[in-house]
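A further point concerns the way the authors explain their paired sequence and structure data. For illustration, here is how one protein appears when written out as sequence plus structure tokens:
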Amino acid sequence: MKNLNINTSINSYDIIIGQNSIFKLNYFTSSYDKILFLTNETIGKIYQQEILDILPKNKTFTYKINDGENFKNVDTAMDIISFLIKHNFSRKSLIICVGGGVVCDLGGFVASTFMRGIDFLQVPTSLLAQVDASIGGKVAINHPLGKNLIGAFKQPIGVIVDINFLKTLPVEEFKSGMGEIIKHAIILKNSNYFNFLKKHYKEILNLEPTLLIEMIFESCKIKKQFVENDEFEKGERAFLNLGHTYAHALETLFNYENIPHGKAVSKGIIFELYLSKILGFVNDNYIYKISELFEMYGIDYHPIYLEENILIESMKKDKKNSNDSINFILDKINFLENVSISQDKILKVNSLFKNRILKGVIDIGTNSCRLFIAEIEKKDNQIEIITPLFKDLDVSRLGKNLNQTGILSEESIEKTFSIIKKFQEKSNSMGVTELIAFATSATREATNGSIFVENIKNRFGIETLVISGEIEAKLSFNGNSALYHEKIATIDVGGGSTEVTIGTYENIEFIKSFPIGVVKLTEMFFSEENYSEETLNSSRSYLKGFFTELDKFKNSDFKIIGVAGTVTSNVSVVKKLSKFIESEINKFSLSKFILEENLNLFLSKNLEERKKIIGLEPNRADVIIAGNLILLTLLEVLGKDFIIVSTNDNLEGGMVLTI
């Protein structure tokens, strides 16, 4: 166990670093009348009881916030303060922040404002928080227009770093922490720490305790130096913001989701190194040396090309700026400097990374429209999805009454246009540089489908490809076959068609788009909500006849992978998810028994009652019964008992489309 003391103008406090150091908690608690144990849902599930067993039971209260940087806001802070007021906390009370950077920042902010300031103790659980957010007394919350724009300087009474927390830390979060640690190694004026990280990277990645403690201690020691010399960030403490101007721009554009802070900082460091290069301060060899260290720790350090006006406007909102300038911490190898950079030089560096862009794909389906935004890399005429960033869905009912009329109705078209407009605005706000769309069964079957596509181009400037059922099926299959090194069958139940593809990544044996989907089946059999035994049996018989081509695959050795809204909605209903949570849905095993149980639940309620079922989107309530009937029929025809649910579908496949 190691101890590091920080001295500031406000107070002096210890950083305790070790294994099982959490048992030092009560060393700090005896003099307080009440204690708030502040954590988040994830940490609470794992460590709540262990920590409560250590703290004094008669005066400890627990408050758990939602996970994610987007909850580090004024609403969450006010909720915590309301809790403190309700439970009669006083100026002699203590907040113990147990969590990552969000909990440390937020808890410190609440402590700095409640009753004009009460004490708080930092117990960081992520590597990033252990070397950054918990140390130095910078506490803050986010504003929708920028990160950490509302905050204060308030020092904790102590910091307890227990490396045991890192055993349950997701790999990506560990890498995020390493991004900040590598930053510390760069700003240090000698190369000792840099060489230490390079020499011991394998042991550190394997969480070897002695080296973890040594690494965290050295990193904290570097931050201590800057904090003590410049407590209120008037001068050289700003050097700790190396990489942060670009990083905060990315985090704001991505709504503080899907890009860990340390990863954003890593990209920002490289961006700023290229700024240093064009100003003549560093060379390619120096950039390569730092990039190589990021590579060793598996960190994605490549900057992303962003739309120029979006990038500049986002950077202008960074809190380090003044007088409308955009400031960067530039590396001059032997020293750092806080420099105001002209927009033309920022855009020159931005243009170097056009092989890494944000791309958006809109799926214009029969029942709904969906948007997918991802960071992609273009290389050797290939497109690779690097990081999925955002997904959205809105029900359009584009194919409503298409069976009867043969055309897309004006009402459905206008509804679809309103969704496309919303998706385009979201894409623009995130800095997306390439936005395309593909349309499926409703558009390709309607006599006015080509006019509809032409109007999308005229109104929004978005190129739209009308794809065949087979291409649609292949897109869904490609998105999943790379994940499974065995034979699979992908089933994509859409509004106007159902795609089935069987084979392996190397060889597709069967692929077909069957012209029946949830909207069509509903209109054919249940248009008046007439779910009688007769109509249900008739629809099942009809579907069996429709899928007879699949009889030859009955009981064959393959897994069934289900994609799209019908399967994901069934999982959401089973788990009672009030919102879509990909980690809860992806790879869930959806059995025939569950599908039948859900079907009976849906049938037991009228349409308005179905709309209130937790986990079922109200806009899907009128077609979900048809969806379950299609899934159950396919399982019967193929002789299978369950479907593995995948959140990868034709959106992921569509990301590689070029128009």
